[in-house]
Amino acid sequence: MSVVLKSLERAVLALGWIARACVLVLVLLVACNVLLRYVFSWSPVGLQELEWHLISPIALLGMAYAVHHRADVRVDFLHERMSRRAQALVDLLGAMLTLGVGALIAWLSWPYVMQSYAMGEGSPDPGGLPYRYGLKAFLVLGFAALALQGLLDAVRTVMRLAQERAPA
Amino acid sequence: APALVRARSRSAFTWRMTNAYGPGSPFYVQGPGSPTDFCKKVEEMSGGRLKIQHFAAGELIPALEGFDAVAKGMVEMNAANAYFWAGKVPAAQYFTTVPFGMNTQGMNAWLYHGDGLKLWHELYAPLGLIAFPMGNTGVQMTGWFRKPINSVADLNGLKMRIPGLAGKVYASLGVAVRLLPGGEIFPALERGVIDAAEFVGPFQDRRLGLHRAAKFYYTTGWHEPTNVTELLINKKAWDSLPKDLQAIVQAAAQACNNESLAWCEAVNADALADLVANHGVRAAPLPPDVVARLKEVTADTLEAGAKADPATRKVHDAFMAFRKKHESWAAVSEKTFLFL
Amino acid sequence: MSLNEWLAIGMIAGFLALMMIGVPVAIALAVSGFAAGYMGFGSMLFALLPARLYGVVTNYTMMAIPLFVFMGVMLEKSRVAEDMLDTIGRAMGGLNGGMGIAIILVGVLMGASTGIVGATVVTVAMLTLPTLLRRGYAPTVACGTICASGTLGQIIPPSLVLILLSEIVGESVGTLFAAAFLPGLMLATVYVIYLLLLGWRRPHLAPALPAEERERIDRRTLGRDLLRTVVPPLLLVVAVLGSIVGGIAAPTEAASMGALGSVLIALWARRLNATLLRETLHGTLTITAMVFFILLCAQPFALAFRGLGGEAMVHSLFEAVPGGEMGALLFLMALLFVLGFFLEWIEISYIALPMFLPVFQAYGTDMVWLATLVAMNLQMSFLTPPFGWALFFLKGVAPPGVTTRHIYLGALPFVGLQIVALGLLFAFPQVATWLPKAIGW
Ligand code: NA
Ligand code: NA
């Protein structure tokens, strides 16, 4: 059981690694684009598009990563007054809903990506980047990863509940 | 904006129209001959049998998502410019404008009575779409420059906000093309992040405040001698309309195509006079040798695009053939008249 | 009321309930939106969702979020920020509330270089919250000051809100930037006065350095420390602002100058290494993703609100208002404030404004003044519990000891101050309308 959990977790973290790399590329790319344009009056359309293309992997692949690291926002003032068991039940609810929302949005996004793929969509600007469906595919990938993270959290919470119930 | 209402399949139709332009924009959203005016006309002409709810960009979906939404039948109509879809259907840009192509009279002649509209429908049919012209800005302006352009060499190293095909043409003359969202054009031009920016025409440009950021206004947009607003319709929805409602939609679109142009001609005349008289704007065409060079490069760029895509080839050749015919007529009619 | 209108109300209630028991805010938004939308509408509505989500993650202006967050995390992890604030604290000497005032000034400077609320709040919070708490500030005061400071960027140009408003009211972006400048400074001044009063009347909430520590301060060392620790981060903000003013970078891309600069400063402080870079990337990713997670999950909610006729309800309310232009204005202000409890500002601007604009056009209301009022009001909604973007974003980066309760309580006095500033702007429209006329924008 825990072997499966561990490897699924590694998948979420691997996507997070990609997103982290994108952050670094974004910082360097935007700064370089500004300086290249200012100093050499050189500003290729493709590199400009790449700037905002990088927001997608950062935002979408980062979601599951943030949830994994408990960096998402929760309102805690009732939560911290609850019993441990009630807290666990709320966490379980949150995890199940995360699973549901992630799966639903990934499912809703699939036809949107395929529509773009069917048209071979690229940038409308000459010199822009091709394969826009690749960019759109992060919607599916990111929310699927979120669903996976919800599943992992749900399983862990159930295990925690079971452990607490079992006589010491 | 109205509440979203579920489509009802009685003899009355309630449709939705999305728009690539944001709430409040004159011409693109509201005012005479605009998409909301179109919706109102259709409702009145049909005695309320076809109601179209209008959603500006961002109200239902973001600006450039209308094409996919209409193709999937999630909304029935979208108002935009066909050249926005160049990344999906490269030939679509010929149905908005062609650099050094035809003016509005020629464009309308081609669309309605050349093969234009037929080719447009042919292009969109496999995608489950049909389109009609629904508006026109008339000729647009070359744009706002912080420094005068006296020769082709002045273009080299110039930083300019200009999207699309024209951007590619400028780029091959050494212009650093900067893509910027509408809201950032003003601050960027004002501070000199860019040296020049293209937007629409005197009325719309003044609304954006571009004259406060740059004083040299180059006129007669070689890159957009006309600019057609596209009424995009889901083909299945279109086919489900009875013949009389189809006729009403077409008539309302034609009326808007006419009225929006008339409105633009009137307000642009006022705005340009105001810009020159009260805001120290220097309005002039680009020098002839610069235009000549741009024309050469444009021909090569268009040819390269046509080579890359068979559908574009077909539309390109038809457009150019019509233009040749229309040019010789325009030379003895409009052109001669304007210089009388 | 129709069934759909009840559903819209149920959706808001459901969201608040889920959020309050401790379900992640983003998930609470999405779940209530989906549930109400599917009940009221079936599946048609949410077929449009991917287009909206794609719009959020490909929005050029949003690029400033990761860039500014990177700058903030880098300064925090390399402890440059901590050194800076400690030095400022010492330089403020015996002035109670002094560090709070310094943070408002940082907010003004940050605000002048970006216009996205998420970016400024998290950056200011990361830079200042740990130090403020260590220095004995009450968590409520610390949180309130940071949220207020971080939201100043909305009203001080450049600003995303102003850009959108300019589109909607049909005034040029430049005019609105000029119009919002003085009201922004006025608001910051109101905050500073409040902190001075607080430091005077309730020194234990915003204490100066303890006397014995102050005695140990040697003026010469302090001067050197100021140069060493305060100047580099300040230069960074100047670099961002300077690259906009100097015409090197457009407002959004200027953020990259700050990000790059923070790397150089860490390098200069001899603290740049692989671990620092790894930690910075981790911090930037989690915080950026936290912001986007909420923005993305707000989309089904917003879509359902529109689909269920939420704005028709708003509209019918408006039609019942008496009192002419003033009545309409006051109602608009109250309405924006209430909508701010559960809708995000983009949605509010799209729903409330275009609908009411014709009314004000008919009254001949000054559109520049109106837009500035609206911008101020929207900025207040960022701070209003229980659903204020600034509050959530602060929660996302706050250390474990800081609770939602601290943040909510801390924000309240600043909401009051904003009402005061809004009242001033209401009574004296010249604060907004004078500058654009004076400089000919
Ligand atoms: Na700002
Ligand atoms: Na709020």
From TrEMBL, chain A:
The complex comprises the extracytoplasmic solute receptor protein and the two transmembrane proteins. One of its GO terms (molecular function) is transmembrane transporter activity. Part of the tripartite ATP-independent periplasmic (TRAP) transport system. It is found in: Cell inner membrane. Residues 26-158 form the Tripartite ATP-independent periplasmic transporters DctQ component domain. This is TRAP transporter small permease protein. The chain crosses the membrane at residues 12-40, 52-68, 89-113, 133-155. It holds the Pfam family DctQ. The keyword Magnesium does not apply. Keywords: Cell inner membrane, Cell membrane, Membrane, Transmembrane, Transmembrane helix, Transport.
Automatic annotation (TrEMBL), chain C:
GO terms for cellular component: plasma membrane. The chain crosses the membrane at residues 6-39, 51-75, 101-129, 136-156, 176-197, 226-248, 254-272, 284-306, 326-346, 367-394, 406-428. It is a multi-pass membrane protein. Keywords: Cell inner membrane, Cell membrane, Membrane, Transmembrane, Transmembrane helix, Transport. Its main location: membrane. The keyword Transcription regulation does not apply. Pfam families: DctM (PF06808). It is found in: Cell inner membrane. GO terms for molecular function: transmembrane transporter activity. Residues 13-430 form the TRAP C4-dicarboxylate transport system permease DctM subunit domain. InterPro entries: DctM, TRAP_DctM. Part of the tripartite ATP-independent periplasmic (TRAP) transport system. The complex comprises the extracytoplasmic solute receptor protein and the two transmembrane proteins. Belongs to the TRAP transporter large permease family. PANTHER family: SIALIC ACID TRAP TRANSPORTER PERMEASE PROTEIN SIAT-RELATED, SLL1103 PROTEIN. This is TRAP transporter large permease protein. It comes from Caldimonas caldifontis.
